[in-house]
Amino acid sequence: AISAQQGATTTGDLVISSTNVSSRAGILSANQGSGALTVTSTGTVTGTGSTGIYAVQGTNALGDLSVSVADVQSSETGIVAINNGSGSTLITATGTVSSGQNGIVADNTNGGALPISANTVTGTGTAADGINASNDASGTSLSIRTTGTITGDSRGIEVENLGVGDLLIDTSNASAPTTVTGGVRGILATNQNGGALTITTDN
């Protein structure tokens, strides 16, 4: 496993770069300082008994929280990103995120944008979502762009944007039509305070 933490008085960035990681929990990271948090993996991150990737920023953080990965396999949630700082939260998953609970969970609580770009995501646990994302009132825009199949036991994609910007969901792929599937709903989108709500799908 990779586990890294920065305290509240630190000012530099916390940067994790890896290829293949396999342990009970794959990558655990916490930045309580004022810098940014970046997690990058070009291989497969496996959490055999817990979360695949867990990344959290405290309220002191001024920089972005960024997670960029290829494949993630997890017995619990695949990717968890919680940003309590004032920067944006950016998640990119180019391969497959396969999990025993939620696939991707992202919470932007204190400012900035929340863009998520993913290929194939599966959340297989009871009442699990493929992608679950929330942007609080101090945030700006929220966007979900996917190019593969998104599956959740409850909802394929569930998003809530309380920020002042637009909410965009785009699951279309001209070269290979995609599907979003949920046991309860395929897509559930709530846009409360700001701009436009746009949803584009292949089906």
Short description:
This protein has 203 residues and is mainly beta. It has no helices and 21 strands. It has strands at residues 2-6, 14-18, 21-23, 27-31, 37-41, 44-47, 53-57, 65-69, 71-74, 79-83, 89-99, 104-108, 112-123, 129-135, 139-146, 150-152, 155-161, 167-170, 180-182, 185-191, 197-200.
Verbal overview:
The protein is an all-beta fold. The chain contains no helices and 21 strands. It is 0% helix and 58% strand. The strands form 2 sheets. Strands 2, 3, 5, 6, 8, 9, 11, 13, 15, 16, 18, 19 and 21 form a 13-stranded parallel beta sheet that branches. It is globular and about 50 Å long.
Strand content: over 45%
In DSSP terms, counting alpha (H) and pi (I) runs of 4 or more, how many helices?
0
**What can be said about the biggest beta sheet?**
13 strands, parallel
- What's the rounded overall pLDDT mean? 96
Radius of gyration: 16 Å
Number of strands: 21
